[in-house]
Amino acid sequence: MRHAILAAFLSLTVIVAARRVEAVCGDGLVDSGEDCDPGPDVAGDCCTDTCTALPCPASDECHAPGTCDPGTAVCSNPEKADGAACNAIAGVCHAGRCATPMSIRAAVVIPQRSATQLGGIVVLGKFVTTPPDALRASQGLAVRIQDGLNLDRIVTWTPEDCLRGVKARWPGVLCLTDARKAQLPGHPDHYGVKLRLHMFDSMPGPFEPPLTATIMQDGGIDRVGTISACTSSATGLMLCRQR
Questions:
Q1: Alpha-carbon distances, residue 172 vs 3, 25, 97, 133, 210 (angstroms)
Q2: Taking a C-beta distance cutoff of 8 angstroms, is the pair 46, 36 a contact?
Q3: pLDDT for the residue numbered 21
Q4: Beta bridge partners of 156
Q5: Cα 80–82–85 angle (5° rounding)?
């Protein structure tokens, strides 16, 4: 009896050893050299048909590589910590987007004076790009204007509102609606910034420096500029000029 049990045990050991030597992708066992093996290949199990883990590369410079969820086959998209470096032009990650510098040489904020005399904002400046970074607006464009007090306005343009290159009649991007225009002309070493944003209600002022303008484009890139040299007039208008 003892010999029969020993023989059976040795036989089972040989079978298991043989299975380990003859690793087969798709048998449901994670063998040496395999990252995963859930069994027969099924789409959405986060495991390739060669039993390697489905890769989840970083979506851009301000996100880290993710992991695949076997329940949904969707990759996570974790943000890098705020302050992480991005872009060749001294960019810094913030909330998963790369903030790159923009210089503002002048800005005007006009308060709403009546139901017919609405508020407006004008910003002039420039920013530099270095390949592979580029100005894009295939998904539209957005601009955010904030001051040091309560002003916080966001203007968006759809892809249909934006023209580029030949269609804009000069290199760069032009996005416009009836009362709001973002003109970003291309030059050999930089892009110009001309923002003319009008027809704002509920914008009575007062306004306080600093004034910050953020241009949000495709690819998780923001162009961010701040100007602090501002003065306010008796009528509530705030004028900013680079010194």
A1: 86, 52, 22, 14, 28
A2: yes
A3: 56
A4: 142
A5: 75
CA distance 240 to 159: 31
Strand, coil or helix: 20: helix
Ranges of each domain in the chain: 35-78, 85-241
Measuring CA to CA, which residue among 37, 19, 40, 41 is closest to residue 29?
37
The rounded distance, in Å, linking the Cα atoms of 133 and 190 is: 12
The pTM is what? Answer: 0.77
Half-sphere exposure for 134 (CA within 13 Å, toward CB): 10
Q: Give residue-wise pLDDT tens across range 184-236.
A: 999 888 999 999 999 999 998 899 999 999 999 988 899 999 999 999 999 99
User: 3: part of which helix (H) or strand (E)?
Assistant: helix 2-21
